[in-house]
Each structure stands twice: as C-alpha cells, then as structure tokens.
Amino acid sequence: MTEREVYPIDITKQKDKLEAICKKMGISKAEAIRDAIDFYYEYIRGLKVIELRAITKEQAEKEILEYMKEKGKAWTDEIADDLRIDIVLVHEILKELAEKGVVE
Q: Would you kindly state where each structural domain of the chain is located, as residue ranges?
C-alpha cells in the first residue's frame, strides 16, 4: 500500500473561493486542491530559470545593440532572457535608445 501524504493547512482566507470552485465544477474540495497542484506543476514544468549576469549599463547597451542588429526585432523579455540581463535594465536602455531614434 502506498503511503499517504496529508497536509493540514489553514485555508480560511481561500474557503469561499474553494467552495465556489467545487460548486461550479462539481468536485470535492480535495479534488479541487489536487487539481490545482497538478495545474501549477504543469505550469512550472515549462518555466526556465534565468541566471542574470552582473554587467554594466554600458556593456548591456552594447550587447543589446548587437542583439538587435542580429535579430532585427525582439520583445524586451526576449532580449532580457537571451542576454541574461535584468529586464528593468533592458527596458531602460531600450527606452533611451528609442528616444535617440536608434530603435523603434
């Protein structure tokens, strides 16, 4: 027989939401919780962890310009992920480059 894992958790704040889910879907609370775990497991399987590099703003700008030259067009998050640069820094640099007319 398989050992059962049981977790006593306080869901007081989520009680109304859980009850609404169960009523709407016609499932038990236990099934709703298990389904939520399955949903999030599938969701995270597709995620990748990006190890950001610590680089100067000048170096980041240089790499972004090279990237744009090579790729043509790209979304901010694509640039940040591919170059492993903080998305806030990428956004800031792209905004400055757009103000200078270097990128659109």
A: 12-45, 57-99
Q: Please state, in angstroms and rounded to a whole number, the distance separating the CA atoms of residues 97 and 32.
A: 48
Residue that the structure tokens 């006593």 belong to: 8
How do residues 23-60 score in pLDDT, each as one tens digit? 999 999 999 999 999 999 999 998 888 899 999 999 99
- Mark 31-43 as b/e (b = at least 16 C-beta within 10 Å): ebbeeeeeeeeee
Per-residue pLDDT at 2: 83
Query: Is domain 57-99 annotated with CATH 1.10.10?
Result: yes
| All residues at 6 or more sequence positions from 48 whose CB lies less than 8 Å from its CB, including other chains | 81
Closest CA to 96 of 64, 52, 56: 64
Q: Are 80 and 90 in contact (CB under 8 A)?
A: yes
Q: Which backbone phi and psi does 75 adopt, to 5 degrees?
A: -80, 155
- For position 7, what pLDDT does the model report? 87
